């Protein structure tokens, strides 16, 4: 079951261009992660596939069969929204059975499949409860069980872990991986704003920005070779620091200030203006020299400390393991190790990344 | 202090509101002597309660008029009009809530206003047109005729109330139902309608109250065969009918509504939407 999108575009009066000429082929048995900021068009793309958002131009086909003429209820698309939707008047069991019965399963079969699915998400003890009697996490599990039990050919999950607490997220992420991998014949599309989620699920990544797919590849590929500053920002958490630099006379100069010898990989580039990106965990505090700046924000999360530093060249985010006693307003010197720098054109396109093949 | 004031006010107001009803109830149990010789208040002390008023309106040897047949007529007409209004009204309201209709500059809001506008006109304006219409259709003095006319007045109320109610139900529920294999009609009947009990109850209650109490159309569009309860009560002319019989008949005619109020009160809880969308 291959799902093909050809030049799909959607424009609305209210929001302007929502999807901008999207073409992509989703192959069965694979998991695709849509990653992007909140308004990048992930949800719209899913709604277009499901038929909830009419497309202006382009074509969506399933195994060559045009989706256009198929009403929503015949498309057999399973969806999990970030707000969990359950039928409030039905019990857990009835909620899960409902789509199965609609699909034409016999009562006894539907019950069997529903029970298996409910047990899989660990709600076997709550069969007769109404959604309102369950906790948020349990409600989302009901929604999941409902969608997963359908064995649809297309599974769409729109930030399904968004509203859950941290521990449950971790647990469900692992379960997702197993569940998705078991669906050999289905196209699974999973939207998220959180880069770690994309990396953990180990699927193929589609980076979306302003209604377009701007990069596609394996997680390592996208992580190590972000094709533009936009991708780099989206895929890195905490976001990558991006600073304007100029290259001249064998040196790389940050803004107007601090300069360091040009790293080997960048030697072949013409002199001129560029941007560099560096991940937060690659920046170190300088023992001497380095770029000076003032600390503007400190976030301590227990296992790590995030320090936001205002430097003459721009804001830099620095991630340190453990808890560090740094205070807002203090000045600090940081070092940007040359071998960890990404070099981008001023228009944002990638020139070279630390993990690019050597010279 | 505030509490005392509040309690006092509520008590006085309740007495004010309940007094006429209480007066009607007590009068319906008074014998002739207790009514015509000045006001009496305390039963057993000032007067001996009697059933003569009640015996006059129910079938039996002392019957003056039989209100049971008009009650049945009222019941048929009210139930029929309410059922039709609820079924078609809620379908219309669902469509208006979920889909966009339009023609030139007119949109859903205008359609809703069209429905509500049916109730702006005073019924008297409609009396002659309806009379001629029913005459042509040979529906004068029939249950069906009166049901249709009442429906034209009740359905706008249902549409108006239910559009708001459906707008408050998350659209995601319909979407989910459609994604799970329901066409819009099935989505409505299988998922939305079961959630709409409180709304339907309120709308239905309005229909029953207006339908049951309608006197104007019942008076103008029926003659003898479909005599409804309000018409029958009015027919007990105050100049020739003793007060205790009048009192018994009014009390008799409000009993069904009061009973209904107690029955549906428990459907009015709003709590059944929990857990739909979080």
What does this entry look like structurally?
- The complex is a heterodimer of chains A (359) and B (278).
- By secondary structure, chain A is an alpha+beta fold.
- Chain A has helices at residues 42-50, 92-102, 107-120, 136-148, 166-182, 195-201, 219-224, 229-235, and strands at residues 3-12, 16-26, 31-35, 57-62, 65-66, 77-80, 154-158, 187-192, 204-209, 212-217, 241-248, 251-254, 259-261, 272-278, 284-285, 291-300, 304-311, 314-321, 331-335, 342-344, 350-352.
- Chain A has a 6-stranded mixed beta sheet, with helices on both faces. A 6-stranded antiparallel beta sheet of chain A has the order 13-12-11-14-20-21, with helices on one face.
- Chain B has 13 helices and no strands.
- Chain B has helices spanning 2-28, 32-36, 52-57, 68-98, 108-117, 123-136, 143-168, 171-179, 184-195, 197-213, 216-221, 229-235, 243-264.
- The radius of gyration of chain B is 23 Å and the shape is globular.
- Chain B starts with a helix and ends in a 14-residue tail after the last helix.
- The chains are: A alpha+beta (359), B mainly alpha (278).
- Chain A binds chain B through residues 50, 52, 71-79, 81, 83-89, 98-99, 102-103, 130-134, 136, 139-140, 146, 150, 163, and chain B through 170, 172-173, 175-183, 186, 190-191, 194-195, 271-278.
């Amino acid at each position: 079951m291959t799902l093909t999108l050809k030049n799909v575009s959607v424009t609305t009066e209210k929001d302007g261009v929502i999807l901008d000429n999207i073409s992509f082929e989703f192959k069965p048995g694979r998991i695709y992660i849509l990653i992007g900021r909140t308004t990048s068009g992930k949800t719209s793309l899913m709604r277009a596939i499901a038929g909830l958002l009419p497309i202006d131009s382009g074509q969506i086909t399933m195994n060559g069969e045009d989706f256009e003429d198929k009403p929503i209820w015949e498309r057999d698309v399973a969806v999990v929204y970030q707000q969990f939707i359950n039928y409030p008047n039905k019990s857990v069991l009835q909620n899960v059975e409902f789509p199965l019965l609609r699909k034409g399963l016999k009562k006894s079969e539907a019950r069997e499949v529903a029970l298996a699915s409910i047990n899989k998400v660990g709600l076997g003890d709550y069969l007769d409860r109404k959604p309102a009697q369950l906790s948020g996490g349990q409600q989302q599990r009901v929604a999941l069980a409902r969608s997963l039990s359908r064995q649809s050919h297309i599974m769409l999950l729109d930030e399904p872990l968004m509203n859950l607490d941290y521990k449950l997220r971790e647990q469900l992420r692992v379960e997702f991986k197993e569940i998705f991998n078991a669906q050999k014949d289905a196209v699974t599309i999973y939207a998220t704003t959180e880069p770690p989620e994309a990396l953990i699920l180990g699927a193929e990544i589609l980076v979306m920005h302003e209604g377009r797919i701007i990069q596609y590849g394996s997680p390592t590929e996208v992580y190590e070779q972000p094709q533009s500053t936009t991708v780099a920002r989206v895929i890195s958490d905490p976001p990558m620091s991006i600073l304007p630099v100029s290259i001249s006379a064998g040196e790389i100069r940050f803004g107007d200030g601090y300069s360091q010898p040009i790293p080997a990989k960048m030697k072949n580039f013409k002199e001129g203006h560029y941007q560099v990106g560096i991940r937060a965990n690659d920046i170190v505090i300088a023992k001497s020299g380095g770029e000076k700046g003032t600390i503007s924000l400190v976030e301590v999360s227990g296992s790590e400390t995030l320090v936001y530093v205002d430097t003459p060249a721009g804001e830099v985010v620095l991630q340190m393991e453990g808890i560090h006693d740094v205070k807002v307003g203090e000045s600090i010197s940081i070092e940007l190790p040359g071998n960890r720098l990404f070099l981008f054109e001023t228009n944002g396109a990638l020139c070279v990344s630390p993990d690019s093949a050597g010279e | 202090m505030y509490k005392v004031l509040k309690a006092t006010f509520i008590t006085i107001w309740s007495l004010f509101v309940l007094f006429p009803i209480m007066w009607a109830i007590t009068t319906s149990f008074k014998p002739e002597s207790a009514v015509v010789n000045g006001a009496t208040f305390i039963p057993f002390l000032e007067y001996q309660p009697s059933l003569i008023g009640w015996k006059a309106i129910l079938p039996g040897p002392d019957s003056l008029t039989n209100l049971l047949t008009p009650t049945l007529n009222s019941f048929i007409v009210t139930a029929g009009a309410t059922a039709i209004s609820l079924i078609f009204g809620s379908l219309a309201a669902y469509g208006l809530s979920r889909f966009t209709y339009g023609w030139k500059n007119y949109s859903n809001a205008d359609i809703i206003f069209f429905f509500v506008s049916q109730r702006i006109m005073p019924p008297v304006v409609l009396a002659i047109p309806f009379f001629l219409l029913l005459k042509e259709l040979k529906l004068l003095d029939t249950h069906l005729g009166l049901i249709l006319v009442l429906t034209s007045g009740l359905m706008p109320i249902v549409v108006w109330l239910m559009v708001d109610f459906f707008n408050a139900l998350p659209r995601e529920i319909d979407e989910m139902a459609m994604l799970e294999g329901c066409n819009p009609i099935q989505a409505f009947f299988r998922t939305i309608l079961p959630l709409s009990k409180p709304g339907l109850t309120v709308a239905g209650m309005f229909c029953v109250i207006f339908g049951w109490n309608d006197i104007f159309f019942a008076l103008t569009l029926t003659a003898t065969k479909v005599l409804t309860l309000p018409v029958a009560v009015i027919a007990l002319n105050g100049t020739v009918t003793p007060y205790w019989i009048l009192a018994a008949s009014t009390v008799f005619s409000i009993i069904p509504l009061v009973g209904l109020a107690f029955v549906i009160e428990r459907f009015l809880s709003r709590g059944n939407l929990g857990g739909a969308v979080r």
